[in-house]
Amino acid sequence: MRRISLFFFLLATLGSAIADDWRVRQASPDNFADTRDAVVMAIENKGLVINYTGRIGEMLDRTAADLGAARRLYENAEVIEFCSASLSRQMMETDPHDIVNCPFTIAVYTLAETGKTWVAYRKPPGKSGLALEKLLRDIVTEAIR
Predict the structure, then answer these.
(1) Is the pLDDT at 129 greater than 50, yes or no?
(2) Is residue 17 in some structural domain?
(3) SS3 (DSSP) at 85
(4) Quick one: pLDDT band at residue 96, thresholds 50, 70, 90?
(5) Confidence tier at 133 by pLDDT (50, 70, 90)
(6) Are 25 and 118 in contact (CB under 8 A)?
(7) Which residues constitute the signal peptide according to the record (predicted)?
(8) Is the N or C terminus of the chain more exposed, i.e. has fewer CB atoms within 10 Å?
(9) What distances in angstroms separate CA 118 from CA 11, 19, 32, 73, one per listed residue?
């Protein structure tokens, strides 16, 4: 019985470790507005244009009552969407199915419970994702100095 319990414990632990392999997140020492502005500036410093900013936190707040949700998840939460024509071309020439990685996104959010601000992005898979991950990492590093 102990072995079965240990097996399921290890399986559950492994699952939670693997679940975080697909995203990268970094705490910011600054507040939400300053962090968001720093991410925007870092994107623009790379010569990239922001296509859209999704105000995810506002949407969740607005729809909470309709969904029967009582807990507020974020003080603020936005997803910044942008693209690079040259990097997108390079990625899709390597693998045309990598179209799903475009546009690129970086999330900036402050958790309601802790007040801590985070910057996060999805870790792109595959060979062609290495250049995109470097770009995303460089943007976040520049924004959170």
Answers:
(1) yes
(2) no
(3) helix
(4) very high
(5) very high
(6) yes
(7) 1-19
(8) N
(9) 28, 18, 8, 13
pLDDT at 123: 93
Helix 32-45 to helix 129-143 angle (10° resolution) is 130
* pLDDT (average), residues 80-99: 93
8 Å CB contact between 116 and 144: no
Residue with tokens 């799903």: 100
- Nearest CA among 86, 121, 126 for reference residue 104: 121
CATH number at residue 45: 3.30.310.70
For residue 77, the cross-strand partners are 109
Nearest to 80 by CA among 47, 111, 56: 56
Q: 4 in a domain, yes or no? A: no
Which pLDDT belongs to residue 106?
99
- Domain span including residue 39: 22-143
Residue 128 belongs to a domain: yes
2 has pLDDT over 70: no
pLDDT digits (tens, 9 = 90+) for 11-24: 444 443 334 689 99
What is the chain's Cα-based Rg? 18
CA 70 remoteness from chain centre: 24
CA angle 40, 109, 43 (to 5 degrees): 15
Return d(Cα 47, Cα 77) in angstroms, integer: 24
